[in-house]
Amino acid sequence: MRKFGMVILLCVLINMAQRRTSAAISHKKFTFLVLSGIMQHSNKSDIEMHHLLSTVQNSGIRASFVIECGNETWRGSRAEYQKSAESILSWKNAGIGVYALPGTRDVEWCGEGKNLFQKTFGKLYQSFDYDGVHFLLLDSTVMLHQRGHLGQEELQFVQQDLKRIPREMPVFVALYHHIGTNGPLHRPLDNEYDLRHLLQGHNVICLFCGQGSENALWHTDGIPTITSTGIDKGVYLKVGVEPHLVTVTRCTLQENTQSIQISVPTLQPLQSQLQAGWDDPDNPYLARRRAAALLDPRSPSDNPDGERAKCRVDDGRWHEMMQDARDIWKRMFYTQGIGAGVHTCDVLLTTSNKTILQDELIFEVERSHKGPTRRWAVNLPDSIVSNPLLAKGLLYVTSLTGTCYALRTRDGSLAWRFRSHGPLAGSAVLYQGTIYFGSTDGYLYALNAVNGRMQWKYNTGEPLLSTPSAAVGIVCVGGRGMIWGISAEKGRLIWKQPSHGFFYGVAVTDGTHFYAANCKNSLYAMNASDGSLLWKRNWNAPYPESNNVSSPSVSDNRVLLATSDGVLHCLNAATGTTDWKAGGSAGNGMFGNSSPAVENSLVLLPDEGKNGKIYAFNLADGSIQWVQETGQQISGSSPALSPDARSFAIMGVRGNVCVLDTATGHMLWQYSLGPGNIFSRPAYNGSVVYTTTMADDVQAINGPGVGAPPPILPHF
Q1: Distance of CA 345 to the CA centre of its chain
Q2: 15, 144, 217, 331: most buried, per Cβ within 10 A?
């Protein structure tokens, strides 16, 4: 019976393959170039681009267009984008079109990066057809961050875009971040499988990735994936498209050498597709789980007897799967040794033709209310990089689509939402019953905290990416080159303080003064009432191309902040002079964007090493009181103290919720949120941790003993 079924299926697949390969593709022979790492910041970039243009013109290469895969600039500044515009013009004058997509350098260190990119190149992501070939150019970057993410709107664009083209149409895909190379804890693009699933079944010829410190070639679900060091190193790709063949050649300007990388038919036969799932109920209280995988559809050329499959949990060890009589691969594993929370099971299947296909399964583990459990989870259509704000039964969340949400803490239901006209990178602050936040549309907004009605908005005329602070009836917020003091009640300008550089972090107050740090490594201390400058401190940047100062914290007439040379600074709040500093070249920390938290006699600060260490310093003299590893890198998240300050919560960049004892650093409990980068500080009321992620969700996690007991499940 099994053999009979296979014969029928084989005939169907052969007919499908014949129909696919017989489809006509009406394109002519043409050539295009792929490059990255333009990085307009010095004359060298211009020299390399002019050299490339000269090479193209003198060698007889008839390039129809150029695809630039990110890092058009060095730091995303206006001047650098102007140089990019001039470079584009020289290529257009030569009759060669330019298509570009952003890289991390274009958006990581400049809050205007994406806006400037759009003004220069037209679109952040797009698609186009050229002589019967489809091109899909994606924006995988995240404002002010190095790691990548594809937002819901962009994924919907990809889905609709691919629906409108024939399945057999050749497709080239370009994006900045790598896909297909790393496990779940180290992926540059946190939701790469959302894209990989959309590409399944389409005739994708090649994936180009701009993120490259080396020349590399690998395969993602059988699709050749290529990265190069960049035009700043004199390297580019030449792609020749013929009616039946695509050839990708890596070229080097300096040595005038070429090396063939791949040759791919433009019309490929039907490829096998991996389908993975669970062979058991989807319930977090199961003591054992069974992963399953098969090829559906299966290519006529793939022999089930020559397949191999394996799986792993999170970034753990790979384990072989077993094939049953229906050619379904399975493996059972126990959940006893897996921590509470959401986890991944990666499934890898190698076909008989040696094509490696991979998929990701998501599962949840919980045991009883005596351990941590998920209270609720809400999926929003927005990516989030800001800190949630917890106040009076509501959780306020700002998002990159420009929406501010108020969610009820009891169940995550929506109380209200308000839409601005620009992404919200900063968080909201509550002051005397009003919510305040800045938007990249240039406005500072004031909303009624209960119903979300706008009370006023003030136009600063420049993008606002920082989190405001409020005191003595004044709301303080940092912009591009100015610090603004706005009347909290009326929304009128009270004062403004000139500065240099963008403000990205959180402004803080001691009730009479405001303290704010900017991207030029400067800390400003101002009188809250009139904005007059109390003092200003500057630090030398150990890494000139990056932001080097965290958001400050203030306590007990001291201001604390970290610099990325690994130093925690404690300053006198009245004078700005240094009381003490800790860390530095001795190796006591790799501090970055995370901000210190202060509790009576302790200063808590995470580093950005791979193990996520948290340091507790003595507030009096900077001596280290304890150090605790969380087991996962921390990027941008800061300690959130409980109301009684006896414990605090912090987030790993890959979703590890950690709650620690403040006095000792002892790990009280942990919970994993699963895929999705986290750059934010959680909200924590001492029993429940509220989190926001780039996976477009907000979750409330109960601590041990909080919430109802789990349901009684039948034995199996």
Answers
A1: 21
A2: 144
**Is 122 found in the same domain as 225?**
yes
Closest CA to 307 of 275, 251, 352: 352
Q: Which helix (H) or strand (E) holds 90?
A: helix 78-93
Phi/psi at 302 (5° precision): -90, 125
Beta strand pairing status for 235-241 and 30-35?
antiparallel
What is the H or E stretch that residue 78 is in?
helix 78-93
Identify the burial level of 279 via C-beta atoms within 10 angstroms of its C-beta, where 0-12 means exposed, 13-18 middle and 19 or more buried: middle
Residues 6+ apart with CB under 8 A from 515: 507, 508, 509, 523, 524, 525, 526, 552, 554, 559, 573
Domain boundary among 242, 264, 286: 264
Mean pLDDT in residue range 184-202: 93
Q: Where does a domain end: 264, 280, 308? A: 264
pTM of the prediction? 0.90
Cβ proximity of 234 and 126 under 8 Å: no
pLDDT in tens, 251-284: 888 765 667 677 888 877 778 999 999 999 989 9
| pLDDT for residue 13 | 29
Q: Is the predicted pLDDT of residue 157 greater than 60, yes or no? A: yes
Q: Which domain holds residue 257?
A: 24-264
Measured CA to CA, the distance from residue 376 to residue 353 in angstroms comes to 44
Centre a 10 Å sphere on the Cβ of residue 482 and count the other Cβ atoms it contains: 16
Per-residue pLDDT tens digits for 604-640: 999 888 889 999 999 999 999 999 999 999 988 999 9
Q: Long-range contacts: 279-283, Cβ < 8 Å, 24+?
A: 279/330, 282/363, 283/713
Rounded to the nearest angstrom, the gap between the alpha carbon of residue 78 and the centroid of all alpha carbons in its chain is: 24
226, two tokens: 């290529």
Spatial distance between the Cα atoms of 88 and 82, rounded to a whole number of angstroms: 10
pLDDT at position 585 is 47
Compute CA 360 distance to the chain's CA centroid, rounded to the nearest angstrom: 18
Residue 160 burial (CB count, 10 A): 10
> How confident is residue 542, by pLDDT bands cut at 50, 70 and 90?
low
State the Cα–Cα distance between residues 641 and 643, nearest whole angstrom. 6
309 plus 231 within the same structural domain: no
The CATH number given to whatever domain includes residue 329 is: 2.60.40.10
Kindly report the CATH number assigned to the domain that includes residue 58. 3.60.21.10
pLDDT of amino acid 11: 32
Three-class secondary structure of residue 525 per DSSP = strand
List 602's β-bridge partners, or say none: 599, 618
Mean pLDDT of the chain: 89
Q: Do the bridges between strand 171-175 and strand 133-137 make them parallel or antiparallel, or are there none, so unpaired?
A: parallel
3-state secondary structure at position 613: strand
Could you tell me if 82 and 216 lie in one domain? yes
Give the model confidence (pLDDT) of 447-472 as tens digits.
999 999 999 999 999 999 999 999 99
CA distances from 493 to 52, 336, 487 (A): 51, 59, 6
pLDDT at 355: 95
Neighbour-count burial for 568-587, b at 16+ CB within 10 Å, e otherwise: bbbbebeebeebbebbeeee
Q: Where are the alpha helices (DSSP H) in 129-247?
A: 152-163, 192-199
Confidence check: pLDDT of 547 > 70: no
